[in-house]
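Meet my pick.
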Amino acid sequence: MCASVVLLVRYGELALKSAYVRRQLEDRLAANVRDMFAASSVECVVKVERGRLFVHADDEASALRLLRRVFGIVSVSAARETTSELEGLTRDAVAYARDVLRPGTTFAIRPRRSGQHPYTSQQLAVRLGRAIQDAIEGLTVDLETPDREFHVEVRGRRAYLFHAVVDGPGGLPLGSQGEVLAAVEDESEVVATWLVMRRGCRARVAGSSAFLAVLRRWDPRLEALEMQPADLTTLAAAKGIPLVASAKHLDQGQAIGVLVLRPLVGLADEEVRRLAAEIAAA
């Protein structure tokens, strides 16, 4: 039998940082994952290991839905964990293939390895491909345009089997790049705030409760300010906090020396509408 499902979490920019900074960002990302799950009362265990986050959760569907709203995550795969020992890995790969492949399907093995093993990635692909074809009649290997890609990620003594990759929002972990003030009185302001949040900034927000609720799905710790959006400029000047601007009443911030961020510059109206719909639907 294969082991229980684990979610493999991948991130992009974090891996390019120095070892010290990367570790800080990984810890922040792991903490944000825990916050997101706790806010929805979904239990999880999060581990950081050599360029990956591993999230163990009983509710796979809920876990995938929540991870898609954690900034810093590039993609997620629900995987079955097993041994990297060739015999056991082959046995579990065949069992997994029986669940996801059907006769007449074309498939390809996509292996990756990290660590020392008595086989190469190519040898592993050949071994698993042959074993799966022997076990399931009517399968054909197609390395160019397969119906199904069968991924095998070998890391040290463990291996992970998966076939689906779910996109995340990307960016940097929330809270890793300071804070901003933002008004959210329409969809464009929601998009502007979300884009800055994706770059790692925590937002303190004033405006419509409905739009606040949309952004709180992306940040359970989102702080709602009991003030009029027009008063944010004064607060920004007093605290030295940047403003996120997409509305005319924030333009005055530049006149009194407040840093004004304009993330919507360069986006067409249809792009803003598309992002607004995706943000609300996630």
In short: The chain has three domains: 5-81, 85-156, 179-281. The chain has eight helices and 14 strands. The longest strand covers residues 75-83.
